[in-house]
Design a protein that fits this description.
CATH architecture of the largest domain in chain B: 3-Layer(aba) Sandwich
Strand content of chain B: 15-25%
Number of helices of chain B: 17
CATH class of the largest domain in chain B: Alpha Beta
Number of domains of chain A: 3
Distance between the termini of chain B: 99 Å
Number of strands of chain A: 22
Oligomer: heterodimer
CATH topology of the largest domain in chain B: Rossmann fold
Helix content of chain A: 25-40%
Largest sheet of chain B: 10 strands, mixed
């Protein structure tokens, strides 16, 4: 560790400090700064040359001057102390305690940047996680090691949904309590953070949770480190200690905005909407830390939450996220406005890994076909609704009116459920069949005849009579 | 020896006089790999294939005096490489679950001995690209050992049949300049230089993928160029996997460029279990994988597509039909953009550099059917996926690609949301080679193919128009014929276009089955129209159980049960005749 302090800052703005005449600094290494008031700040080296060093200051450059800023260059990357004692602790965005307890006594300190997993070392996620939420389990199932984001908008209950998933997530046939939770929050309000804390406390999960909080009123640049610290903790818990880790990160849009802020200060060429060209690579470095590794017992399942600015799914943050993650759960304002919780819009939602985690050996044989049929029927029902809005429901054909009834029932009975209501996947499938039985049997072409014979409830459908 | 002047992410400025643009460099104590992309005075700007964290100004740098090359020879098939042709399995053995930096591993196994059968004799006149002999690389693929394209001269000595490693000398050549050169089972070739051939020929045969929307509606020729653009979640990955699995090329090169790690694991898991439908051997024996997942360094991602296409060209030069899938070219373009941005190059559109269009065009131009230097024919069919931001096809990468390719398989979010898979949009897609493909279909399947295809597309277009009317004023406003047209279009969509990759019967459809299914739906439409003309109410037609049944035929009749399907299709008129008879016999109506 270097004990030499340099006082050679030549410029400071927007979270970046440029220092001259510092020899032999390694790119990416950690910096400790001392300001005029004696306050300590953390930084990391972004760029080095033989003349100058560019330092990113996580606490920001507010209150810094050039004359009284002292920097110490530690010859190591930014590291997080890790041990089993992480569980039950609350840290700030840099991994320092914010629960009033002393720092971790750690055997090991890990580079927060991680290193890419060799693709041949990965194990494919195949184990179904039951979240107890029909819209997810039935149609967009989550598997262990998957990364499945929640795309939301301002004012929608994404954090309540995330909290419910954290409380209820379990593998079928295993006891609750298998998951440990890493919760990373950046740019969210104190109230939202408290809601999470209380929700975890109520379910008794706080002792198996690690929290990294950088709230809305805290330094923006610190957010660039927060998800990395959280994922470093998750990797240690999963791949060293063998825990199954559920990581919730909220709100990714705040992270990306911080990244944009620094990129603009650095003079990076902007790509879309001012976000830098490396936003995709940067997000991928975070998201791809989820997964499973062969011959290791633990796993990281990642649920990033992001708010789509102006509910726009084509905004760079949800867009690039969607290209990296294995699907997305999309929340819709129309459903929320009707009082439906969780307001999951099933049509734009998707779980890419569902096909390998449901069905015969995982949930129930008919699960994939039922999901496909629900999607197709609900998509058809939406068409009928559009038509009814124009010509009036009275002018619809009888068959079409049944789709309207199906859509209503689907939204109010299948999608909607209580915040503490936990449905088993079998209950979800039974409910699905009950709703599908509202539709004419011959229009259910995505399910096989055998499945129809077993599950279709003719009694629920008085008009399904023999042809005239 | 040079040294580091500046480190800015993946871009490093070096003091390295006499460096050549394109030259490989090793930088710093770890020996990080990179490539020179610019020279200014005594300085060279290099883009690094590995993360530069920890690198300092003043550390040593060395130029290797050669561009980025790949090693070509037996042992390529079935191997998974990273974007720089390092074997990932061996990399894991060397550095564990996570990829360490500065590792340099040989691409081809050094210890393995291959049974070599010579084809030429000493004294022969040798030209570049000629076949020296053969090695049975896998049970289904014979590897032809080629003279490196830049060698000409007299064959002084050729090894007798026997087992050799890829680095043992098997031949000596006196080159035209008098120098003696030793040849091995393997040679190296720079990835950014297209491999030479005798001449470029017309593409003539369609690539059969077993996917109806592709083969029947928007065919791609062997040696052609195609793009699959689509927003996330539209089924790009599954469609590519279907092509890799079922297409009738002899070799498939799959380049995962900046895509998901788990997806690649999926490929690695299922590939070994699949059999090649043409040879009955494991699919992996004809497959080459190059993977640079999204979290691996960005510059190696840029290199990975060139590594892939060079490997494809090498098998083409042996006389094979090769399909290369590049997933995704957008990630590759973004890597270009990222590097251009770090260099401070002036962006033109959405941050992309001005040379985006020309780089894309030059890359796709490496596809084609050629007469090889050895005199045979081979082809590289290039299929690139495009991931347009927000699904917007007017963005630069999609737009440029659209101008370059002959076949465009546009994926649509609306279709995917309705779980209509493959979600290939029949309006947005196009194919410029229908006439060439029609020759093959006429000879091998049915002379009516081109007309049937056109009729189906016209029906689909008519139905799109009618749907707009229905959405405005309701289905009652349509005439009987129009309602029947709508139903026929729905039949084509559900009974022909939709094809489930997970359905064991219908995952692949032979051309004859593809044609029969389409013929069947068109026949139903025509017969119904005739019945309407004879006064049968459309309501009666729409109640026909045949309509439900026809939608299930694709999953009921496998490709080997074409004759049963043909018989079933032939009986369609009877259904309508019966209906017409019932309708015309007055006392038969209740």
């Amino acid at each position: 560790m270097s004990i030499v302090e340099y006082r050679s800052a030549t410029s400071a703005r927007g979270g970046l400090v440029l220092m001259r005449g510092v020899p032999g600094v390694a790119a990416g290494s950690r910096v400790l700064l001392r300001d005029a008031a004696g306050g300590r700040r953390n930084g990391v080296v972004l760029r080095v040359s033989s003349e100058a060093v560019l330092v990113q200051v996580f606490e920001g450059t507010d209150g810094l001057d050039l004359e009284h800023t002292w920097a110490r260059f530690l010859d190591e990357p930014y590291r997080l102390a890790v041990s089993r004692e992480l569980l039950g602790r609350v840290f700030n965005g840099l991994g320092q305690p914010r629960d009033g307890r002393p720092p971790l006594i750690a055997r090991e300190r890990r580079d927060v940047n991680g290193a890419p997993i060799n693709p041949t070392a990965r194990a494919y996620p195949r184990e179904f996680i039951q979240t107890g939420i029909s819209a997810i389990d039935g149609m967009n199932a989550l598997t262990r090691g998957q990364k499945l984001p929640i795309f939301s908008g301002g004012g929608l209950p994404h954090n309540r949904l995330a909290a419910q998933i954290v409380r209820q997530a379990r593998l079928i046939g295993e006891e609750a309590g298998q998951f440990v939770v890493v919760f990373a929050a950046f740019g969210i309000s104190n109230a939202e953070a408290r809601f999470f804390q209380e929700s975890l406390e109520d379910s008794g999960a706080l002792t198996r949770t690690v929290m990294f909080l950088n709230l809305a009123d805290e330094p923006v640049i610190e957010r660039l480190l927060t998800p990395r610290a959280a994922l470093t903790a998750a990797e240690y818990l999963a791949f060293e200690l063998g825990y199954h880790v559920l990581v919730v990160m909220t709100d990714m849009t705040a992270y990306c905005e911080a990244l944009r802020e620094v990129a603009v200060q650095r003079g990076d060429v902007p790509a879309r909407r001012g976000y830098p060209g490396y936003l995709y690579s940067d997000l991928a470095e975070l998201y791809e830390r989820a997964g499973r590794i062969r011959e290791r017992s633990g796993s990281i399942t990642l649920i990033p939450v992001l708010s789509m600015p102006a509910d726009d799914i084509t905004h760079p943050v949800p867009d690039l996220t969607g290209y990296i993650t294995e699907g997305q759960i999309v929340l819709a304002r129309e459903l929320a406005n009707q009082g439906i919780y969780p307001p999951v819009a099933v049509l734009p939602s998707l779980s890419r890994l569902m096909k390998d985690g449901v069905g015969r050996d995982h949930t129930r044989e008919d699960h994939p076909q039922v999901a496909s049929q629900l999607f197709a029927s609900y998509a058809r029902a939406q068409e009928v609704r559009r038509l009814a809005a124009i010509i009036g429901a009275e002018d619809l054909a009888e068959g079409e009116r049944r789709y309207l009834a199906f859509a209503e029932a689907f939204e109010h009975r299948f999608v909607q459920q209580g915040e503490d209501e936990e449905r088993s996947v079998i209950d979800t499938l039974e409910l699905a069949w009950e709703l599908l039985s509202l539709l004419p049997r011959e229009q259910l072409t995505r399910v096989s005849e055998a499945e129809l014979a077993r599950h279709y409830k003719a009694s629920a459908n008085p008009s399904a009579l023999a042809p005239p | 020896m040079g040294y580091v002047i500046e480190v800015n992410g993946p871009i490093v400025r070096l003091h390295l006089p006499a460096a050549t643009i394109g030259e490989q460099v090793r930088v710093g104590a770890l020996g990080l790999a990179g490539e020179v992309i610019a020279r200014e005075g005594d300085e060279a700007v290099a883009q690094m294939y590995e993360h530069t964290d920890g690198l300092r100004a003043g550390e040593a740098a060395e130029g290797l005096r050669r561009p980025l090359t790949v090693e070509l020879g037996p042992g390529l098939l079935g191997t998974l490489y990273d974007g720089l042709q390092r074997p990932l399995t061996e990399l894991r053995a060397a550095s564990g679950d996570r990829i360490a930096r500065g590792l340099d591993l040989p691409a081809l196994p050094r210890a393995r001995r291959w049974p070599f059968s010579p084809r030429l004799a000493a004294g022969a006149r040798l030209n570049g690209g000629e076949v020296l002999g053969t090695v049975q690389e896998t049970a289904s693929i014979e590897h032809r050992i080629l003279v490196p394209p830049d060698v000409r001269g007299e064959l002084l000595e050729l090894a007798p049949p026997g087992e050799y490693t890829v680095t043992e000398g098997i031949a000596r050549v006196r080159q035209d300049d008098g120098r003696i050169r030793q040849l091995m089972l393997s040679h190296r070739w720079p990835v950014r230089t297209p491999r030479p051939y005798r001449y470029r020929d017309h593409a003539v045969l369609p690539l059969i993928t077993g996917q109806r929307i592709l083969d029947t509606f928007y065919p791609l020729l062997k040696g052609g160029k195609a793009a699959i653009p689509g927003p996330f979640g539209a089924g790009k990955t599954v469609l590519q996997q279907q092509i890799a699995r079922w297409c009738n090329a002899q070799i498939v090169v799959f380049v995962g460029c900046g895509e998901r790690g788990n997806e690649l694991t999926d490929v690695l898991d299922f590939m070994p279990r699949l059999t090649d439908p043409y040879s009955g051997r494991p699919l992996l024996e004809r497959t080459l994988l190059v993977a640079n997942t999204s979290n691996m360094p960005v510059v190696a991602r840029e290199a990975s597509v060139y590594v892939g296409i060079t490997l494809a060209e090498y098998y083409r030069d042996q006389g094979y039909d090769v399909v290369m899938l590049a997933d995704s070219t957008s990630r590759w373009a973004e890597a270009l953009r990222e590097v251009a941005g770090r260099l401070g190059q002036m962006p033109v559109e959405e941050g992309y550099p001005a040379y985006l269009g020309s780089r894309l065009a030059a890359f796709y131009e490496r596809a084609g059917r050629v007469q090889t230097l050895a005199g045979g024919y081979g082809s590289v069919t290039l299929i690139g996926t495009v991931s347009p931001p927000g699904g917007d096809f007017s963005e630069p990468v999609t737009r440029h690609t659209k101008e370059i390719v002959q076949t465009f398989w546009a994926l649509s979010r609306e279709l995917a949301d309705a779980r209509h898979y493959p979600a290939v949009d029949w309006v947005e897609s196009f194919c410029g080679d229908v006439t060439a493909a029609a020759r093959w279909w006429t000879t091998n399947v049915d002379a009516g193919w081109q007309a049937a295809r056109a009729e189906a597309l016209a029906l689909l277009a008519a139905s799109a128009e009618l749907t707009r009317i229905v959405n405005l004023v309701g289905v009652e406003a349509l005439s009987a014929e129009q309602r029947w047209t709508l139903e026929a279009a729905a039949l084509i969509k559900e009974g022909v276009l939709q094809q489930s990759a997970l359905d064991p019967v219908d995952s692949h459809a032979a051309p004859a089955k593809q044609y029969l299914l389409l013929r069947a739906m068109l026949d139903i439409h025509a017969q119904g129209m005739r019945a309407l003309g004879l006064g049968v109410p459309v309501r009666r037609l729409l109640e026909l159980p045949l309509l439900v049944e026809a939608r299930r035929w694709k999953g009921h009749y496998g490709s080997e049960e074409v004759e049963a399907l043909r018989a079933r299709v032939a009986s369609i008129p009877q259904v309508f005749e019966a209906l017409v008879r019932t309708h015309q016999a007055p006392d038969a109506r209740g």
